[in-house]
Every structure is written in structure tokens, then in C-alpha cells.
Amino acid sequence: MRDLYRMPGHLIRRMHQISVSVFAARMRAAGQDLTPVQFAALAALSAHSGVDQATLAGLIAYDRVTLGGVVDRLEAKGYLVREVSETDRRARILRLTPEGEAALDRARPVVDAVQDEMLAGLTRAERDELLRLLHKAAEAGNARSRAPLRAPQAERPAQG
């Protein structure tokens, strides 16, 4: 049997624990009340205002049902609003409020700083290579995910 501590799944889980821990500590220290998923949702909505919840879930590769709770909490904080879609009265579109944009602006420098801290111990070249390889592996496995990343139509690579 391979050594547990060298298995990719174990190491990815450990890195996730580390990244969430560092993120939470730095956000708390900065007086922010955001989780990594809440930050991702705000960032995606900032770039893609007016999408519905299912589209937002695809933009951040998150389970649609679980994202409902994230959206509820962001709405309760006053960071986003839900509006009835003009094209589908059953759908609710999401938009950041000015408070949500301000929270995102305050969080961005903290999140930027956290990225280096998560990869402490690696040189810049090693960090770049790790990120390249993680991106490659995530792209290759995207279709097997329970919550695949779904880029908006305009950002998808051309087929053919």
C-alpha cells in the first residue's frame, strides 16, 4: 500500500484544511466576516452581475443546493439582492449591492496576501509550477466533479 501521506487525495485535503484555516484567520484579523465560498460568490457576481443561482454555482464550481445557503447569508449581510428575472419570472437573478462591492474591495487585498501564505515553503517557481499542475488536473477532472466549473458561454474556448 502506498504511503498515506504521499497520496494526492490526502495531500489535497490537507492543503484545503490549511487554506481554509489561513483564509479564516486573516479575514478575522482584517475584521471581515467572509468564508472562501462567500468571497468566490462575491467575486463571480462582481464579474457576472445578473446571473441566476444555478449559473453562479457553475461559475464557482459549487453545489447548487448548498450555494442556496451561501446566497441566503450574503443577502442577510446586505451584500447581494435577488430580483425576478425579466426573461423567466420563475428565476431570481443576483446582483451585488454597494455594500457587497465594498466588502469585496476590502477583502481582495487580504485574499491576495493569503495566497502566498498558503504556499509557504515553496519558491516562486515552485508555486507557479504547483498552480499550473493543479489547474491542469482540475481541468482534466472537471467533468467528473459533482459540481463542475462552468464558464459563461462568452468565456468558453471555441470548439473545433
From TrEMBL:
Positions of transmembrane segments: none
InterPro entries for the chain: HTH_MarR-typ, MarR/SlyA-like, Tscrpt_reg_MarR-type_CS, WH-like_DNA-bd_sf, WH_DNA-bd_sf
Source organism per UniProt: Rhodosalinus halophilus
Protein name: MarR family transcriptional regulator
Cross-referenced Pfam families: MarR_2
GO BP annotations listed: response to stress
An annotated Gene Ontology molecular function: DNA-binding transcription factor activity
HTH marR-type domain span: 1-139
Region described as Disordered: spans on this chain: 140-160
SUPFAM superfamilies: Winged helix' DNA-binding domain
Keywords annotated in UniProt: DNA-binding, Transcription, Transcription regulation
The organism's place on the tree of life at top rank: Bacteria
